[in-house]
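Handout, page 2. Input:
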Amino acid sequence: MSGPSSMNDAELLSIILRTGNQGENSLNLSHRLIQEFGSLSAILNASFKDFEAYKGIGISKWSQLQVIHELVQRSYKEKIKQQSILTSTDLVKSYLIGLIGQREYEVFVCLYLDIHLRLIDTHEIFRGSISETAVHVREIAKECLLRNASNLIIAHNHPSGSLKPSQEDITLTIVLHEALQLIEVNLLDHCIVTKRGASSFLELKIMPFKDSKH
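Output:
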């Protein structure tokens, strides 16, 4: 007997929506939502205002989508806490996309890890421009010490949709990497996140993190 894993995204979404609108059933509405929003992640992260143009999506259905999104995020976080970050790169990306990918403003988050590379805590530490590098480095170092973190992954979103790091992104990463070595915290990666995906400095080979023990 086939289960949910055999169904495509639109079919799964149509089960949640249950009904469509006049002249459009739930499956057709689901296909249209995925096509116009671009992904399931974008739909789950959308605000109620984003659905104003779609008849058949009222506050009740939107609330259900929000609950599903929260359950997914909690599931990701639980799994990341239970296993090494190095074995769950795709999971971390999915978690970050759901966490900050849809934000309309720039958000900077830290993933604090223990000596076994398991997640201790996720912390939204800054909003807005990351140009004030020195201030950010001090704050991040302080938060690492407070949590007794041995390793760190940093991430921020690009509301523009670009997955390419800016020169400011690169400068901050270099300065932070060097500063954290002084307190014996390893900066493992810097992820750039958008609505449609995520990339990492390690994958892009922008920085080799030569001093990292991992």
